[in-house]
Amino acid sequence: MEQAACSEYAVLCRIFFMNDKLSWADLEVFFHVAESGGLSAAGRLTGLSPPTVGRRMLALEQRAGQALFHRSQIGYSLTPAGKALHDRVRVMHSCSIPVQEILHARRETPLIRLSAGTATAHFLADKFSLLNRSSDGFRLNFVTTEAVLDIAHREVDLGIRNRPAEGGNLASLSLGILRFAPYRSWSVGNPDLLGWVGIDPAHAKHAAVRWLHDQGHGISVLANSIATVHELVRSGAGIGVMPCMIGDCDSSLARIGPIIEELTEQQYLVMHDDDRHRSPIRRLIERLTKIYQDNGPLLAGDRPMRGSASA
Predict the structure, then answer these.
(1) Measuring CA to CA, which residue among 138, 135, 131, 136 is closest to residue 116?
(2) What range(s) does the HTH lysR-type domain occupy (predicted)?
(3) Which of 23, 63, 83, 180 could form a disulfide with 78 if both were Cys (CB 3.0 to 4.6 A apart)?
(4) Per-position b or e across 286-302, b if 16+ CB within 10 A of its CB
(5) Confidence class for position 103, pLDDT limits 50, 70, 90
(6) What's the pLDDT at 149?
């Protein structure tokens, strides 16, 4: 009996996978909708959102050229064509379980790729224990870049940005306000003689970096990365513009002027709409949101200063 069932499975595989209009991914989602009788339950089993499951089933019906479900307020029930397909897909699903078990046993712990600018990545890396635990079943991959990576095409899974998602199958979540101020080293003997430390024009992509050039301040030292600017300011090379969440947490630095209000920005967490309901992604989103909530005054520059200093 088992041999006959798997022979039928092999035949069905040839039928479905030689037809580029159908895929096992679609049929597996169909199987879970048919078994559970609804989009929400199928979404929980597949890690997809209910609207995405619904769209996938409509697309499957269009490819099949016939209705597979009766839709009602109480859920999804199978049409005769849907039942016939379900009978066959159930065999395919049953025969695929041993394969899934082998792959699951051998695969590495999945990665969640989180992209952020240098300052934000530094801020979050310092709070790693609040983001990822050994029991989570996923690993974090910090992607530190000032570039905007393509989440819609899965270059990364989550991105922290200073603007919401624009187009594509993306979703955005507001995280909080981020403010900037000028800082210098406490150890400088003659602060009145300090110039500014800035990013060179070729790498001046962020508004806070371009601001320094737009003001016409005398820039005495240039660098091509924000991390290097931070180290130069700490060493006493000059004054630098930094996010308050970095400058106010560095005991070697002094804030030497008011918050630069025109640089104030809203930070957003951007994600693929199909992925945000997956359990590991959802868990990480909740933790990121809590970190931003708990550190709101620091991010907004409201943390009490350790003392006053002058340029």
Answers:
(1) 131
(2) 22-79
(3) 83
(4) ebbeebbeebeebbbbe
(5) low
(6) 85
Where would I find the beta strands (DSSP E) of the chain?
69-72, 75-78, 111-116, 139-144, 158-161, 170-178, 180-185, 196-199, 219-223, 240-243, 253-255, 265-272
Regarding pTM above 0.70, the answer is no
User: Smallest Cα–Cα separation from 28: which of 91, 76, 111, 72?
Assistant: 91
Q: What is the pLDDT of residue 21?
A: 53
For residues 113-127, average pLDDT: 93
Confidence check: pLDDT of 225 > 60: yes
Q: Tell whether the model's pLDDT for residue 127 goes beyond 50.
A: yes
- CB proximity list for 183: less than 8 A, separation 6 or greater: 233, 239, 240, 241, 242, 247, 250, 253, 254, 255, 256
Helix (H, G, I), strand (E, B) or coil at 177: strand
Q: d(Cα 181, Cα 26) in Å, to the nearest integer? A: 52
